[in-house]
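Technical note accompanying the year-one report. For the benefit of new consortium partners, we illustrate the data format agreed upon in the data management plan: each record pairs a sequence with a structure-token string. No post-processing was applied to the example shown here.
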Amino acid sequence: MGILIGVVGPHDLVDDVAAICEEQPGVSTLRLDYDHESQAPTIVEAHAGAVEGWLFTGVVPYMLAQEADVLTRPTAFVDYSGATLLSALVRLQHQGHDVTRLSIDTLSSADVAATFAEAGLPTDELRVLPWRSGLTSRSAIAFHRRGGEHTVITCLSSVHDALRGKLPVLRLVPSTHSVRIALRRLLLSAEGQAQEDAQIALGLIELDGEEGLLREATALGGTLAAFRGGVHLLVTTRGPLHDATGGFSSLPMLSRLAAYSRVVRAGFGLGRSAAEAESLARRALARARRIGDVAAVLSLRADTDVVLESVAPPPARDTNLPLLARRVGLSVATLEKLLEARATVGDQPLTTREIAERLAVQQRTARRMLHRLELAGLAERTGNLSSGSSGRPLTLYRLTL
């Protein structure tokens, strides 16, 4: 069985990192690039249900996604210390730079010191700006500019682009060895998650009739059997139950079954063995009976009971442009122009060229913007239109934001 990994990073790194990952048998990748590292959380959130693990091309997009609390799958990032930093030092030395006078961002002082000690190099004249929460590319640029004659080593493409031509600057790119180490760490984590997802989940369902119950059991990827005393036994695993309950928060099947039965009570138990799961399911059903005629409870180990809401709350639609801009990784000004375009054409689709002209950007940039909007449910692809030349067809999009 294979695993699909989402590789997140800047345009010029994603393909190389993904290609190294795909050398591993059973690994396939979803390549997700960004223009600026601040867009990483939005990309992760948009593709959260499509992948089984995340691999970031560096620590910065990983930290931003972690701080945004959007990581729900096993995750790893490529470490730029060690082999990656050593190869950069060799390259700079061959180019005639003084590798004992460097200005380095993102890496920790301890990692830099360890790498230099391994290479037998002094650290007295190094300037290091470790990554910390709230660190921006602007502050990293200011830090390097204060370094005077120091050669710059950066992990951030935005910093490299800003300093190139003004200071001697080298951007760290992940070594093949570092990518393989990160991938190995991710696969081990994903294997542990898979074992957890395979935990047995037993549900004891009590209701007046059986209409709709088989369909609900099938949707949970489970099997149904008679238990005793009019109670039905639903057997599944942790993974499908977790997904169907929105992370163990709601059980929409409860309200659907209540349309046919006056009494619908469900008790789910999650355990490492069938006996443990059944014992917990009994406890959960007993509590559901105390709650009322329509109730569901999930019982976990360590005496933890979770009351499951009958209906999942509807997703809130973003009407606040600054909030929406952060979610899709675009500026408020861009969204305002797109809203103007939608007001002009209504439900009529626009080509990528037309949208690029309205936004005064290149078609490639417009395609990336529209892709983000599509993932967020704010634009829909309606087809292709020949451009009338040998170039690629123009994609048609209907704006729904």
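Partners are asked to follow this layout when depositing records. Confidence is low (pLDDT under 50) at residues 312-318, 387-391.
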